[in-house]
Write a structure and sequence with these properties.
The complex is a heterodimer. Helix content of chain A is 52%, strand content 14%. Chain A is of the alpha+beta class. A six-stranded mixed beta barrel of chain A has the order 2-3-8-5-7-6. In chain A, strands 13-14-19-16-18-17 form a six-stranded mixed barrel. Chain A has a four-stranded antiparallel beta sheet with strand order 12-20-11-21. In chain A, α18 packs across α27 and α24 runs parallel beside α27. The longest helix of chain A has 39 residues. Chain B is α+β, with helices and mostly antiparallel strands. Chain B has a single domain, classed as Arc Repressor Mutant, subunit A. Chain B contains four helices and three strands; from the N terminus they run αβααββα. Classes of the chains: A alpha+beta, B alpha+beta. Chains A and B meet through α2 and α4 of A and α2, α3 and β3 of B.
């Protein structure tokens, strides 16, 4: 309150200022008149008396200033004065101002962008109402959120901590609204999904828990706003329409509001459908299988007043009970709560680690920028020492001069911050609209800067303003007016290590580190593009379809699949055609439990390994380019009538059978008791991500384990577009109602490479920023060094110094600092690069190419940055200089 | 700031309060009064009076009003407020204590004789 009053008093005083000034003026004039009256009485004439009175009065302006201060209303006023003065000085050196503002704009912009992403994905996701109390349930042991439907029902009905528990999983389905059948991404959800989240329909109504009456009892869908907009042209009467989903009639109930794009932050579905209709939407029904964890995530709002720890205890007691009741199916049922937006720890942890790292690097950039500006400011202060001395001599206080320097610094930092923020908002808007993976139109990252972002940008600007404003303080405090005026501006050439040198080294070290990071990342990406995945994506096309979308089920599935393979093989130019249910590195496959042949009790605790399971056609390995190491590939004779066989990878052989050579011919068991014989071994590959360690995988014949999910791998040297057209017409001839999409395998991998791509781009941008800062820093320092020593250089040249000697005298020091800083930065970069290995495939700084690249880059930067100052040093004309003196 | 500058304002404030305690005065009048009651022993730069006056007004020790002077000129007159009178009393007491103690300390001691 007191503060507010004080402020009001000051503002009022400011407003009354002109009146107040007039009064003060009048009072002082009255004083002088009275004095003059007295002097006149003692015999002087009036003019002389007044003159004398004025002299006796002393420095009138100074006393007026002191009167203002005595009244306490000088603060805002001097601030305005400082502002005006700062603006004027900045306008006088536009080069310096622009360089400083741009430097800061880049640094603060980078920070704002990274923070906005961090804020939108991790700190403060706002995709659902009351996101603060919304939690996903995750298994504590393996940090996975997958849950089976029966377990979900138990958790939902028996917990006392959540308002309601909803469940969802992702599925792809074929939607036919009477026109061209197209494939859509759906969330299959529990009936209570919208109610549990508290979402209100934009149009029509949502489905509810009360609509569920057993399998396939709720043939309803809810459209997303975007899909309704693009495919139903904003038709307000859409509710009630019946469309065909995988050939089954479904009624459109309504449209979700535009701001609700699903419970995952990066995956917005085209429509929502009830999970009880899974058989129709997904082509399979696992609703009764307690061991089959087919639900992507269970989530809900905590009841008011229930702490997360209480909820976990509640869930764990239910889990323990389930383990006791269903020992065959349920194991390790302990839970933790996570944020649902990034699928809990699955994406949340790497995203958090990466973004935190990035935030740290962006902070370093800002620090480097501050060091840069700090040395610029120090250099400026040195150049302005005459002005400072003059002001001190004229009676200005050091405090006042310092305040003015800070005003200048903060002014620059605020301008830089504003420019940076503006740039980042534009950039983020682009980023939000970006669809990184063309075939998954549902994947995007919405980032909308909010108040937090603006606040952080403001704080960063102010903090950096003070940080670099503080650099020249000591210099100004030490200024001795008499000394400076006497010795002139040339000053002494000091040899000891100055604060400026230190700042430059810090700045260059940071920049070299960033350059190291970006080179490591780029190199890692290049390698990941040309690495060995256990298959050869070049010259292959993928044809994706799900046969259940066209109404196929049971025995009709493998029959059609075989006809598809034969039909595509017949296309001219096609070398081989393979079939796999999910191609590696594109869709997540669920791992299956594997038991040794000797195991009789197939309960979860006896699992020997968990292995990825693929179903393939005999020719798959040839089409995919996967190396068969031992034994034989699968054949058309491996069907329902023959023994169950599998080809396994090396890692599987090592894990289950101890070693690779003796695995052939041996058997293992699946969770359902099926005994499978190993007939071949293939090389290890990358299955889920590029950065994963080798993991076990088994390949089963699709005739023995049918799957409606179908990907044809077509190897051919033909032009992809022509080939795609040929494949399309061939498949249309087989079944005109089958939705499918065709693309090259390299395109398909775009999704997998998204994370390393993003990492590389962001690290590359930061490296570029670092390089730019290094250039401005070194060139500023070098230019300053040259300008300070122009006279010395002129004398050297006059005395016959060679070009090399002149250059060495002028630029030796900046270059030495550059070399030292680069070495420090490179060393730090190597140390910290381990962190990068988490996200960038094969990121290793101990790579001669990277090391050489960093050294070369820093050399080039040094060359570019010192070019202009060097030219200036060389062109010194001693005659001109001496004449100027 | 030097020691001198710090000492001066406090002393000046006390002198102003004392001068005004004898009756309302304008700025120049205060200066004359100080000269008169101190036997012209103190040299005060004329302008330095005003920041002191403004400070005392702000602290509520003086109040000011415009009036006409004996020279028939417009002038701002200052007079003591109740708080000003109380402060003058306190400051005078503490000044006397200080001056007495210092005078006592500086006086020739018996062992010096």
């Amino acid at each position: 309150m007191k503060l507010l009053d004080g402020l009001r008093f000051r503002v009022a005083a400011l407003l009354r200022r002109s009146q107040f000034n007039a009064e003060m003026e009048e009072e002082l004039r009255s004083h002088i008149q009275h004095r003059a009256d007295d002097l006149e009485r003692s015999g002087l004439d009036r003019a002389q008396a007044e003159r004398r009175a004025r002299i006796e009065f002393g420095g009138r302006e100074k006393y007026k200033e002191e009167c203002h201060e005595a009244l306490g209303n000088h603060l805002i006023e001097t601030l305005l004065q400082d502002l005006r003065f700062s603006l004027r000085t900045l306008r006088k050196s536009p080069g310096f101002t622009i360089a400083a503002v741009l430097t800061l704009a880049l640094a603060i912009g980078a920070n704002a962008v990274v923070f906005a992403v961090l804020n939108a994905l991790i700190l403060n996701p706002r995709n659902v109402p009351q996101a603060k109390s919304l939690f996903g349930i995750e298994h504590g042991n393996d940090k996975s959120a997958w849950e089976s439907y029966p377990d979900y029902l138990d958790l939902r009905d028996r917990n006392r901590s959540f308002d309601n528990l909803a469940a969802f999983t992702l599925a792809q389905a074929g939607l036919d609204s009477g026109k061209d059948p197209s494939s859509v991404w759906t969330y299959e959800t529990s009936g209570n999904y919208f109610d549990a989240l508290g979402i209100q329909p934009y149009l029509g109504r949502f489905f509810h828990g009360s609509d569920e009456h057993g399998p396939n009892s709720a043939p309803y869908i809810v459209l997303s706003y975007a899909y309704w907009h693009s495919h139903f042209q904003d038709d307000l009467g859409v509710a009630g329409h019946v469309v065909k989903l995988n050939k089954h009639p479904f009624t459109i109930l309504g449209v979700a509001p535009p701001e609700f794009q699903g419970t995952l932050l990066f995956f917005s579905p085209d429509l929502w459908a009830p999970m009880v209709n899974q058989e129709q939407v997904d082509g399979l029904n696992v609703l009764d299988l307690r061991a089959h964890r087919g639900i992507l995530m269970v989530l809900g709002h905590l009841k008011a007043g229930v702490a997360p720890a209480q909820a976990v205890a509640d869930l764990n007691s239910i889990g323990a009970d389930l383990e006791r009741s269903y020992p065959k199916d349920d194991d390790k049922m302990s839970f933790i709560l996570t944020r649902p937006g990034l699928l809990g720890d699955f994406l949340g942890r790497p995203a958090k680690a990466f973004l935190t790292g990035l935030m740290f690097l962006a902070g370093l950039i800002l620090l480097a920028a501050c060091a840069n500006l700090g040395s610029l400011f120090a250099a400026r202060a040195a150049d302005r020492s005459r002005e400072v001395a003059l002001r001190l001599a004229l009676g200005s206080s050091r405090k006042r001069i310092l305040r003015q320097v800070f005003t200048e610094a903060v002014l620059i930092s605020l301008a830089g911050g504003a420019a940076g923020l503006l740039g980042s908002v534009v950039l983020l808007r682009e980023f939000s609209a970006w669809r990184p993976v063309p075939q998954f139109s549902c994947i995007h990252v919405p980032v909308n800067p909010d108040a937090n972002v603006y606040l952080v940008a403001l704080l960063l600007s102010l903090a950096s303003g003070f940080l670099f404003g503080v650099v020249p303080v000591r210099q100004i405090l030490r200024t001795h007016p008499y000394e400076v005026v006497k010795s002139g501006s040339a000053g002494r050439v000091r040899r000891q290590i100055t604060l400026r040198d230190l700042l430059l080294v810090v700045q260059i070290a940071i920049c070299a580190m960033l350059v190291t990071f970006s080179l490591v990342a780029v190199r890692g990406l290049l390698r990941s593009l040309h690495g060995n995945f256990g298959f050869e994506p070049r010259n292959t096309m993928l044809v994706n379809t799900v046969l259940s979308m066209a109404g196929y089920s049971g025995d009709r599935v493998p029959i059609l699949q075989r006809r598809m393979i034969e039909a595509v093989e017949a296309i001219s130019g096609v070398q081989s055609v393979g079939l796999i249910n999910y191609p590696p590195l594109s869709t997540a496959v669920e791992p299956a439990n594997v038991f040794t042949d000797q195991t009789t009790d197939l309960s979860p605790s006896n699992v020997a390994a968990s292995s990825l399971l693929y179903t393939i056609s005999p020719d798959y390995f040839r089409a995919a380019g996967t190396l068969l190491l031992q034994g034989r590939a699968l054949s058309w004779q491996d069907d329902q009538t023959s023994t169950r066989v599998a080809v396994i990878n090396r890692q599987f052989a090592r894990k289950i059978f101890g070693s690779v050579p003796n695995a052939i011919g041996r058997c293992y068991k699946m969770g359902n008791g099926a005994r499978i014989q190993v007939v071949g071994i293939v090389e290890d590959g990358k299955y889920l991500s590029l950065t994963e360690e080798s993991q076990p995988a088994m390949f089963l014949p699709f005739l023995q384990t049918p799957s409606s999910w179908t990907t044809l791998v077509v190897r051919s040297q033909r032009d992809p577009q022509q080939l795609a057209a040929a494949i399309r017409s061939t498949l249309r001839d087989l079944d005109a109602g089958l939705p499918f999409d065709i693309k090259t395998w390299t395109e398909e991998m775009g999704g997998t490479l998204f994370a390393p791509h993003m990492a590389t781009v962001s690290l590359g941008v930061l490296g570029l920023l670092g390089a730019m800062l290094a250039i401005t820093g070194i060139s500023g320092m070098a230019a300053y060094a040259v300008s300070r020593r122009l006279r010395e250089l002129g004398i050297r040249i006059a005395l016959g110094a060679q070009r090399r000697e002149v250059l060495q005298a002028a630029l030796g020091r900046p270059l030495k600092l550059l070399a030292f800083g680069s070495a420090v930065g490179l060393f730090l970069g190597i140390l910290a690069s381990r962190v990068l290995a988490f996200i960038v495939y094969q990121a290793t700084p101990r790579d001669p190419l990277v090391l050489a690249g960093v050294v070369l880059a820093m050399l080039l930067l040094g060359l570019v940055a010192t070019w202009i100052p060097a030219q200036r040093a060389l062109s010194v004309d001693p005659l001109v200089l001496l004449r100027e003196e | 700031m030097t020691d001198q500058a710090q000492l001066l304002p406090g002393t000046l404030d006390l002198l102003i309060l004392r001068a005004v305690s004898l009756g309302p005065l304008h700025g120049y009048g205060i200066l004359l009064r100080i000269g008169q009651i101190s036997g012209n022993a103190l040299l005060i730069e004329q302008g330095a009076l005003y920041p002191g006056l403004f400070r005392l007004v702000r602290q509520g020790l003086l109040k000011a009003s415009w009036g006409t002077s004996e020279n028939n000129r417009k002038a701002k007159f200052y007079e003591l407020t109740a708080a000003g009178r109380k402060r003058l009393q306190e400051e005078t007491d503490s000044w006397n204590r200080l001056a007495g103690a210092i005078a006592c300390a500086l006086a020739p001691q018996p062992e010096e004789a």
